[in-house]
Design goal:
The protein is mostly helical. Helix content is 76%, strand content 3%. The strands form two sheets. The protein has a two-stranded parallel ribbon. It has a two-stranded antiparallel sheet with strand order 2-3. Helix 7 packs antiparallel against helix 10, helix 7 runs antiparallel to helix 12 and helix 8 runs antiparallel to helix 9. The N and C termini lie far apart (75 Å). The relative contact order is 0.10.
Length: 393
């Protein structure tokens, strides 16, 4: 708009660039390392507050007081998250219990004629297939029976019991995680209640340029864009894996695959939250399950997930996440490694949303902060005239 004053610009002197900024960064690193748990909790609370603030602001436009708007948004948010987590935990525990029982039966219970375990029957069928395809020299059945006899019933029961205990422990850990998030909820509620004051204070000190958004709204949009893209990516990958496994189970390529398609699909969708290694983690349980059921079935599952990963890498990620994150791949890798070093697995999960919000803040302040140039030509140079020397006659 004509006549609108330009945003304030701050020039950082060279002595601050040389001395002040390195000391400040070192001090921030030391303090953050000493209280990294508190810093992590506050950063997660800030991300939640930035994500929910647009909803609170929308309710405020229909004359709902801010405190009541925060309560409405948070109750709805907490209900959705709690129901999703509890439903997922229930499915995981039930499916793990059923799968562990099937694995125990597969290795230890005799069935069919002649009486033998399911693993022994599968080994015999696989050996017959090798013999009929001119691969008699490959003695899989003999070596496999030695391996199965060395395992023993007690060993299988021990491992399946460990898997069952892990699943039950995971369910208890989920409940403990819900309880531990209470502090994050309280902090984020306080942030939401005062977010409009913070936004007004930032706008007074750093007014947005004409036709641009304020700092807080930029961070909100960047975070919302990332969350929408990640949710859509997880939904596409999880649904693709679940439908693919259901089809393989219905056609008989993976025995009983349709029974666990929903659980494996949900797992694949959740592991998509973990960048780079998530697709491999998502494929591991169904491949192991198919390998236990029938060795040849694992090949179909591997081909399915390879196709899904190709779809993800060449179509879904470029279309869905390419326009939401807008970060260089090297910066993404560094952020993930730094998040893992600082706070382990939770640090990896929050690294990318923090980078998305940080990118918006960087773009905002890069328009307002100038570094004093180090060009020596700008320094005042004292010119000294050299004495004139006359040549001798």
């Amino acid at each position: 708009m004509p006549g609108t004053p330009a945003p304030n610009r701050i020039e950082v002197p060279r002595w601050i660039q040389l001395v002040g900024l390195p000391i400040l960064l070192l001090l921030l690193w030391v303090v953050a390392g000493a209280v990294r748990h508190a810093v992590f909790l506050f950063l997660v609370a800030l991300l939640i507050a930035l994500l929910l603030n647009p909803l609170v602001r929308a309710l405020g436009r229909v004359w709902i007081p801010r405190g009541l708007a925060v309560a409405i948004v948070y109750l709805a948010f907490a209900a959705v998250v709690a129901l999703a987590v509890l439903a997922l935990a229930t499915v995981v525990v039930q499916q793990t219990r059923t799968a562990s029982h099937r694995v125990d039966t597969y290795f230890t219970r005799d069935a069919g004629y002649p009486p033998a375990t399911g693993a022994e029957h599968d080994l015999a069928r696989f050996q017959v297939w090798l013999n009929t395809h001119h691969l008699k020299q490959v003695k899989v059945e003999k070596q496999g029976r030695k391996f199965l006899s060395s395992i023993g019933t007690n060993d299988v029961t021990k491992y399946t019991q460990k898997a069952l205990n892990w699943a039950e422990g995971a369910g208890i850990a989920v409940v403990g995680l819900l309880f531990s998030t209470l502090l994050i909820v309280v902090v984020s509620i306080y942030m939401l209640l005062d977010m409009h004051r913070l936004s007004e204070a930032v706008d007074r000190r750093f007014p947005p340029a004409p036709g641009t958004l304020p700092l807080i709204q930029r961070m909100e949009l960047a975070l919302a864009s990332y969350v929408k893209g990640q949710f859509l990516l997880s939904l596409i990958i999880g649904a693709s894996a679940g439908v693919g496994l259901w089809i393989l189970g219905m056609v008989g390529a993976v025995p009983n695959g349709e029974k666990y398609a929903a659980a494996f699909g949900a797992w694949a969708g959740i592991t998509e939250l973990i960048p780079y290694i998530g697709p491999w983690l998502g494929a591991a349980p169904p491949v192991v399950y198919a390998l236990v059921q029938e060795p040849l079935s694992a090949l179909w599952v591997v081909l399915l997930f390879l196709g899904i990963q190709q779809l993800e890498g060449h179509l879904v990620v470029p279309k869905v996440m390419g326009h939401s994150l807008r970060l260089h791949p090297l910066l993404v890798i560094f952020g993930l490694l730094a998040g893992g070093e600082i706070y382990g697995f939770p640090g990896i999960l929050v690294a990318l949303p923090l980078l998305a919000a940080g990118r918006a803040a960087w773009e905002f302040f890069s328009e307002r902060v100038d570094l004093q140039p180090w060009d020596e030509a700008d320094d005042p140079v004292e010119v000294v005239e050299a004495p004139t020397v006359r040549a001798a006659p």
